[in-house]
Amino acid sequence: MLLTSYRLGNLTLPNRLVMAPMTRARAVDGKPTAATATYYAQRATAGLIVTEGVHPNAVGQAGPFMPGVHTGDQVEAWRVVTDAVHANGGRIFAQLMHGGRIGHPEVAGHHPVGPSAIAAASEVFTPTGIKPAPVPRELTIPEIRNQAQAFGDAARCALDAGFDGVELHGANGYLIQQFLSSNANRRADGYGGSITGRIRFAVEAVEAAVDAIGADRVGIRLSPGGEVQDIVEENMRALYDALLKALPDIAYIHVLATADDEVLMGLRKAWPTAFILNPGGQIGPHEGTREQGERWLANGADLISYGRAYLGNPDLVERFRLGLPLVSTDRETWFQTEAGYIDHPSYQH
Q: 138 near 114, Cβ under 8 Å?
């Protein structure tokens, strides 16, 4: 099943493997580099590539050495990347990631913003090292609407840069999930409190992207019940049931296995279009396996995303096809280093 084709929106994918978004922190002045183009082009046999998180506006930058897609220079730089992927026969979505309260004034000169003035009980990356997350500035209602619209503006920029579509990052404790949460979001207005209020920002951000580039080019990533970066979601089942009902019929939802199988199966049954499942859940100690993917395809998932496994195995599709061993990677090379980025070869027979 993993190696069969699939129709996703207006794209025909040659297989059901998705390269999951992974922060690599190697951008220069907010732009991808020539090495970025090589990195993604090496992995173009994936059915779909979803890039590392790309900030949709300046205040959304979560950490140093992360790229954006909201200026002309950034668009031009990403066009080199998308051209390289397409030249190698691939398909690529940009993941739009707004850090919200996960950020720091040292990163880009902007104070982080969030649904409420409540700091995450976690640490953030800065140019001078790891520091406690600061208390964000609480967004006003007009500012919330502007931040939602930023996803639409960035989606339009992404298409100008040659991307096939965008994925909104609604997982792992960033701005969209901060609004979904019950501890980062303590608002008492229409963007907080009830489940209807907590899902509102996510829905408006997705609608902005859909209005900009069309529903068949938009996806969203979710981590139901995930606790990364100090997130708590009260009434999680009801929260995600309501969210899926309120979202437009976009190309896909991309769900991390952060809840039990019963919850994940319920989301699969409730969602009308493509369902991408990442079996690894939160960042774990091991690469995902073909067996995990096949199990979830048998349980109703349409596509399976792999993160860690794609770091050291640019030819992951071929390794799965031939039953070849996977290369593990050293965590010390995941971010910033020159080593461990484009120097992992395909399998040598």
A: yes
d(CA 109, CA 42): 34
Helix/strand/coil for 189: coil
Distance CA 236, CA 217 (A): 27
Residue 6: exposure state from Cβ atoms within 10 A (0-12, 13-18, ≥19): middle
pLDDT number for residue 285: 56
pTM metric for this prediction? 0.96
Report which of 16, 14, 49 is spatially closest to residue 32, judged by C-alpha positions: 49
Which of 174, 252, 310, 341 does the annotation list as catalytic?
174
Asked about 174 being catalytic, the answer comes back as yes
Enclosing H/E stretch for 6: strand 6-8
Choose among 52, 39, 141: nearest CA to 99. 52
**Would you say 56 and 156 are in contact if contact means Cβ atoms under 8 Å apart?**
no
23-50: per-residue pLDDT in tens?
988 999 999 999 999 999 999 999 999 9
* Residues 232, 79: Cα–Cα separation, whole Å: 38
Rounded CA-CA distance 53/50 in Å is 9
The domains found in the chain, sorted by start residue, are: 6-333 (3.20.20.70)
Q: How many residues does the chain have?
A: 349
